[in-house]
Amino acid sequence: MSSHTAIGRTRWAIAEGYIPGWSNGPEPQMASHETCCILNAGGQPAQVSITVYFEDRGPAGPYTLTIEPRRTRHLRFNELADPEPIPADVPYASVIESDVPIVVQHTRLDSRQAENALMTTIAFAAD
């Protein structure tokens, strides 16, 4: 297998999302956040689109970005702003779509108390 071989899937889902409304510790390092870690191990740029779903209103997005070939991107949902910010203290889910295979991992840092909680899991490969 070449190091330029694309791996992963083109559709991913993260069914669980929640950005805590406050943090304990220095920012930006210890700010409570949700992160979508995206790996593009292939040789082509990945055009990525993220749609965010809520319990009580229509979806937000798409949020679009490019992941260059053989690169990774750690995208904090807290920092998404266009077309709208993701609200804190509101449950949500997300679907990540790409025109080339990528790998997606979900991570949350909850620093609302001094004993921080870190959670991570691979996203659901939807295709």
TrEMBL record:
It comes from the Bacteria. InterPro entries: ASRT (IPR009794), TM1070-like_sf (IPR036698). Pfam families: ASRT (PF07100). This is Sensory rhodopsin transducer.
